[in-house]
Amino acid sequence: MALISRGVDALFTASSGTIYEKIGAFRDLADQAAVPIYSFYKNGVLNGALAALSSDYFRMSDELLIPMARKVLIDKKERQRKGVASRLVTKRTVISH
């Protein structure tokens, strides 16, 4: 690889399925030259990258988004049951329920 022969300190792989499918093709060359590969996706690590700089979107959904949505929906039903008006405020508009 041209980058390895130029003496790069590290390789960073983009988030691309094509790259991750072919990572083995340049992983061996990088290993021989002691050049680490970093990924922006956790599957890069599974395929040979040293580390990944990424977010686990499934974990974020399970731990943050789903509980927040549940709270909003349950709280809304509780407020409606008790006869309390609720408002959703966005940057551009106010929606009353």
Order of neighbouring strands in the sheet with most strands:
1-2-3
Percent helix range: 40-55%
* N- and C-termini, Cα separation: 60 Å
| Domain module tally | 2
**Major sheet:** 3 strands, parallel
State mean pLDDT (0 to 100 scale): 75
Cα shape? rod-shaped
The proportion of residues in beta strands is 5-15%
Q: From the helix content, strand content and strand pairing, which structural class follows?
A: alpha/beta
H/I helix tally? 5
Tell how many strands the DSSP assignment holds: 5
What do you see in this structure?
The chain is an alpha/beta fold. The protein folds into two domains: 2-52, no CATH class; 57-96, no CATH class. Helices cover 52% and strands 14% of the residues. It contains five helices and five strands. The protein has a three-stranded parallel sheet. Strands 4-5 form a two-stranded antiparallel sheet. A hairpin with a 4-residue loop joins strand 4 and strand 5 (94-96). The model has no long low-confidence stretch (mean pLDDT 75).
Describe this protein with a few key phrases.
three-stranded parallel sheet; 52% helix; alpha/beta; 97 residues; two-stranded antiparallel ribbon; 2 domains; 5 helices; 14% strand
Fold topology:
Elements: H1 2-5, E1 11-13, H2 17-21, H3 23-32, E2 37-39, H4 42-46, E3 51-52, H5 57-82, E4 87-89, E5 94-96
Parallel strand pairs: 1-2, 2-3
Antiparallel strand pairs: 4-5
Brief overview, please?
With 97 residues, this protein is α/β, with parallel strands linked by helices. The protein has helices spanning 2-5, 17-21, 23-32, 42-46, 57-82; strands spanning 11-13, 37-39, 51-52, 87-89, 94-96.
